[in-house]
Amino acid sequence: MDLWTLKESHGLPASLRNISWMALASQARVLLFDQACNPYRKFMENLTAVRSAVAFPSRAGLPLHFQNWSRRSFSLRIYDSAQEISDKCGGWNALRCGRLDSPCAESDDKNWKKDCQKTIYSFLAAKEAQHHQGRLRSKLERWILGDPTHSPFIRIPTRHLTPHWQARRCHALLGYLSTPVPPRVQSAVFGIIWNRWTTSVRFQGTGECTFGCSDWPGLDKAEHYCKCEVAKEVLRRKLNLNPATYGNLQTMMMVHPSIDSKETLTTVALWCYGLYTTANRLRGVGGYEREEVIDAITQAIREGARGHPHARKVLDQRWFREARTTPLPVWIHQDFDKKTSRLRALRAVAGSRREVRRRLN
Fold first, then answer.
1. Are 109 and 153 contained in the same domain?
2. pTM attached to this predicted model
3. Number of structural domains the chain divides into
4. Partner of 311 for a Cys bridge, out of 109, 155, 187, 305, CB 3.0 to 4.6 A?
């Protein structure tokens, strides 16, 4: 289900289409606007007659096998689909008015027929994406990010090692990545979190590090590439980041508290993209010198930033002392407890601090 809600849950540019949701939305549109289903009262009378005949086929003079056929009829199918959607959204009028800034009567809503199917599909996708943080938390559990040995050279507060904080942090940064980097880079970061990298260990095999590092055991797995000697050398020499701080699994999973600026986030994401593409190209080839592999990773990083003004600017200014850093948005660092969440919800509805204070009291 992750592919159907990439945009709604994790902030990626687009989501894959779910054919079941598209079928439900199109069937509801047919029931509401197709001439064969209008007027609606006549359609319901015919549908009631069919259901009565199906319930008592012998009384209506119909053969018994007609009962099985009628249950698969198009009229019953579109009615059941539309009723299912109506029950989920609380009625068609609520769904129609929910997409408008200022609700109006159906007769004055000229675009409802055109937007109906798209609105229904968006509602189904948004309803499925409600539990995105729980899904992300289950994906992060396999990496055991709460182990402090992942970052032995930097002290991370205990609270930042909890699954709840890491899931919220990862979700916030993953969604914010659509601004500073291209979609291909965001996809590579999403892939490492979902264990999508095509390493040997992922396919229950064994293999040496594709970068040819001297570490032991230099296995072909995602947990190794974040702390590989070659990958850390790229951080130090090419990206001006301290390997002792950023060369770890928590950085690749976007949960490290040291990722505190937009430029650092961009650089780390490009580093992950460079490791991902270079490892795929060198897998099964081998025979390259260490400097050649470092140059290949650097070139892949530049390819990842190609065509994106902000990403290119960040790469060009990695060694500028006067380069300005942009702090991450405040909402990424905030800790939303129940009271804070309630305040934000009330402000969105009330619009004034006085009204919020009155409702809380």
1. no
2. 0.79
3. 2
4. 305
* 7 in Cβ contact with 14 (< 8 Å): yes
CA distances from 112 to 34, 35, 119 (A): 14, 16, 9
Please report whether residue 343 resides in a domain: no
Domain shared by 275 and 239, yes or no: yes
Whether the CB-CB separation of 136 and 167 falls below 8 Å is answered with: yes
CA distance 200 to 166: 27
Q: Give first-to-last CA distance, the chain, whole Å.
A: 42
pLDDT along the chain (361 residues), means of 10: 86 90 93 88 84 68 63 82 87 86 84 92 86 87 84 78 90 92 94 91 86 75 91 95 92 92 96 95 84 95 96 94 87 54 46 49 47
Q: Which domain holds residue 148?
A: 142-328
- 83 and 199 part of one domain: no
The contacts of residue 160 (CB under 8 Å, 6+ apart) are: 166, 169, 255, 257
The DSSP secondary-structure symbol of 129 reads G
Q: Which two tokens stand for residue 139?
A: 């994906």
In a domain, 227, yes or no: yes
Taking phi first (over 0 means left), then psi (-120 to 50 degrees means alpha), and beta for anything else, what does residue 276 get?
alpha
Distance CA 243, CA 221 (A): 19
Task: Using DSSP, state whether 63 is helix, strand or coil.
Answer: coil
Among 32, 23, 228, which Cα is nearest to 116's? 32
In a domain, 350, yes or no: no
CA distances from 80 to 72, 176, 312 (A): 11, 39, 52
Same-domain pairing of 146 and 255: yes
Cβ-proximal residues to 353 (8 Å cutoff; 6+ apart), any chain: 347
The backbone torsions φ and ψ at residue 65, rounded to the nearest 5 degrees and listed phi first, read -70, -10
Q: What is the tens place of the pLDDT at every residue in 248-307?
A: 999 999 999 899 999 999 999 999 999 999 999 998 787 789 999 999 999 999 999 999
Neighbours of 213 (CB within 10 A): 20
pLDDT of residue 41: 87
